[in-house]
Amino acid sequence: MKTEEIDGTTLETWTIDEVGRAWDANEIVLIDVRTPQEYMFEHIEGALLLPMPFFKPEKLPGQSDKRLVFHCGSGVRSEKMARAAIAAGIGRIAHMEGGFGAWKAAKRRYIGTNMATGAPQVVNP
């Protein structure tokens, strides 16, 4: 995990393995900041969708039990949103290094679209 101090709050950048372990153990809330179209085509099963254009940090769920971890396609948008959340006074924020592209490259489980039928399907079960 990489960390950066920003105005007394720590921005954490988690690896795919760190996110995967915490996700599997139900220790985090995973928030996908990609577009609805990107999410519909393929996404991490159970991740919440909060597209960047609609982001309101003051509306984020409480953080009493689980850390919020943002992810996008490559890690750029999720880092921007994590920084915006910190600027809004939200703590315990992280983002996933490499984004969904890195998740797929690591052969982690996700929901994709069967191109023959258009139906959702589990990839890398």
Structural summary, described in words:
With 125 residues, this protein is an alpha/beta fold. It contains four helices and eight strands; from the N terminus they run ββαβαββαβαββ. It has helices spanning 16-24, 36-41, 76-87, 99-105; strands at 2-6, 9-14, 28-32, 48-49, 67-71, 93-96, 110-113, 120-123. The strands form two sheets. Strands 1-2-6-5-3-4 form a six-stranded mixed β-sheet. β3 (28-32), α2 and β4 (48-49) form a beta-alpha-beta unit. The longest helix is centred in the middle third of the chain and has 12 residues, at 76-87. The protein is globular and about 50 Å long. It starts with a strand and ends with a strand. The mean pLDDT is 94.
> Average pLDDT value?
94
The N- to C-terminal Cα distance equals 26 Å
Q: Indicate the low-confidence ranges by residue numbers.
A: none
Number of helices: 4
Structural class: alpha/beta
Give the biggest beta sheet: 6 strands, mixed
- DSSP strand content: 25-35%
Shape: globular
Give a count of the beta strands, DSSP E runs of length 2 or more.
8
Radius of gyration: 14 Å
What is the H/E order? EEHEHEEHEHEE
Q: For the largest beta sheet, what order do the strands appear in spatially?
A: 1-2-6-5-3-4
Q: Which percent range fits the helix content?
A: 25-40%
List keywords for this structure.
single chain; 125 residues; alpha/beta; six-stranded mixed beta sheet; two-stranded antiparallel ribbon; 8 strands; 27% helix; 28% strand; globular
